[in-house]
Write a structure and sequence with these properties.
Blueprint (H helix, E strand, L loop, with lengths): L9 H29 L1 H22 L6 H20 L2 H22 L6 H6 L7 H4 L2 H31 L2 H33 L9
C-alpha cells in the first residue's frame, strides 16, 4: 500500500498542537508563577505538580490519548518536586529543569540505537500522521535522524541554562533562559519541518504542493 499523504497546512498543525502545548506547558508555568506570590515556593511547586497529574488523569478517565509531551512534563516535574522536597533545596528545583532537559536529550539519543525513535512518538502530538505512513521505511529513517537532532538541541539548551544559573542573578537567569531556550527550540522545529517536507517529498511519501 502506498504511504503517500498530504501534510496538513501550518494553521491546521498549530490548531492541533496548541491545546496540548497550553495544557501541558503554559498553564502549569502560569499556575506556578501565580502561586509563587500567593503560597510561596513550596506551595507553587505542589500546585504545579497537581495540575500536571490532573491533566493526565482527566484524559485517562475520558479514554483519550495522553500526549507524549504531557507525559514527559509530568515525569520531569515529579522528579523536580521529589528531589526538592527531599533535600529542602529550592536551588535544586530550579536546577532540575536543566537536568530534565539533559535526560530527555539522552532519551532521544538512546532511542536511536534501540530503533524506537522518540521523535516518532512525539510527532503524533503535533501532526496526525496515518499509521501506514509511520510504518514507511523512509519515514522511520527520518525520525531516527531527527531524534539525533533533538538530542543535540536538548544538550545545547541544558548547557546554556546551566551556565546562566551559575553566572547570572535569578531574574536574569529566568528571562535569558526562557528567551534563549525558545529561540533554540523554535529553530529546531523549523529545521525539522523543512527537513521532513523536503525528504518526504523527495521519496514520494509527502504530496507536493501544486499551488
Amino acid at each position: 500500500m502506498s504511504a503517500h499523504f498530504e501534510i496538513p497546512r501550518l494553521r491546521t498543525l498549530a490548531r492541533h498542537a496548541l491545546p496540548t502545548v497550553i495544557e501541558g506547558t503554559l498553564i502549569p508555568l502560569s499556575l506556578f508563577l501565580v502561586m509563587l506570590h500567593v503560597l510561596g515556593i513550596w506551595g507553587a511547586m505542589a500546585v504545579g505538580l497537581g495540575w500536571s497529574y490532573a491533566a493526565v488523569l482527566r484524559r485517562l478517565i475520558a479514554g483519550r490519548r495522553v500526549p507524549g509531551i504531557m507525559i514527559l512534563g509530568a515525569v520531569t516535574l515529579s522528579a523536580r518536586c521529589a528531589l526538592a522536597f527531599a533535600t529542602g533545596s529550592t536551588f535544586l528545583y530550579f536546577l532540575q529543569p536543566t537536568l530534565g532537559t539533559a535526560l530527555v536529550a539522552g532519551a532521544f539519543l538512546l532511542s536511536v540505537p534501540l530503533g524506537r525513535p522518540l521523535a516518532q512518538r512525539l510527532a503524533a502530538d503535533f501532526c496526525p500522521i496515518p499509521p501506514h505512513v509511520m510504518a514507511n521505511t523512509h519515514v522511520r529513517r527520518f525520525f531516527l535522524q531527527i531524534s539525533v537532532l533533538w538530542a543535540v538541541t536538548g544538550f545545547l539548551n541544558a548547557s546554556v541554562a546551566l551556565w546562566l544559573q551559575f553566572s547570572q542573578s535569578v531574574a536574569t537567569f529566568m528571562l535569558a533562559k526562557s528567551l534563549i531556550s525558545a529561540g533554540i527550540t523554535v529553530s529546531a522545529i523549523a529545521v525539522s519541518t523543512v527537513w521532513f517536507k523536503r525528504s518526504m517529498t523527495r521519496h514520494g511519501v509527502l504530496a507536493a504542493r501544486t499551488g
